[in-house]
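Problem: given the chain below (287 residues), write out its structure.
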Amino acid sequence: MVKTTRLPASFGVQIEMDSGGALDTLRASELRDLVNIHGLLVFRGGHLTADRQRHLTSCFGRIALGADKKPKELYVSNRRRSDAPDGELIFHYDYAYDRNPTEIISMYGYEVDDGATPTLFASSNRVLDTIPTELRNRLDGLEALHACFLDRTAPAEERSVMEVDAIPRGAAGWDAQDWKTTHPLVWKNKHGVPTLFACVQHTVKVLGLPIAESDALLHTLFGHLYDPLNVYAHHWRLDDLVIWNNRTVQHCRPKPNDVVRTLRRFEVLDEDINDLYLAIGRANNFL
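Solution.
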């Protein structure tokens, strides 16, 4: 039996197990159940090679591949070439603007000094239990538009005219400006766990509402999502492993400091879109 301790938040658990030992089928099944129930898993104090991290991550599904057809090993770092933008990153789901957002993210403290920039997490599942019933009922049947290059902080006149009918990723004529999609405001992940699928970085508007009404609704929802009682701040230590469901838990990086922080990352996803994202990000000087 995997032993757990609740994190100091309304969601998430710390895992007490030998992350360097072999996982049997029962433990893998337990871990999948735990991430579905709690959204966020934290392992501390066990040194992990890249192979071991991949093995642990593979308990949750297919690891995304790179162009070489090998598991895509990514780094988020202020000491080496990073596969994530620099600076502050407000709350988001990775690939919220894609038809198939990342399912599971695995991040490991590869190089970390004391006082490194934390990662903040907010539960889009648990918040559904805390918002007022009237507000919760209002969300049924509503959908939101999410975009890679335009967010809710853009001028209202730009967002109000943004169309939904983007060319699907992979179809002829597609380019980065078409990387947008819609999802129900109350969605479910692949295991049926409900989630309030809206984030301040990528959610442009609620469809079918005037832009002012959409902004007011999102403002209210974000007030609940990012309430301190619904946020967990993970202060990184060397050899930490954090695994979360990207469809039920959002993450952000506050304004970073210069303390050494390199995190090794793998993700679970049915489609291999990391290289496409990296190419677009570097072509637009985001990475």
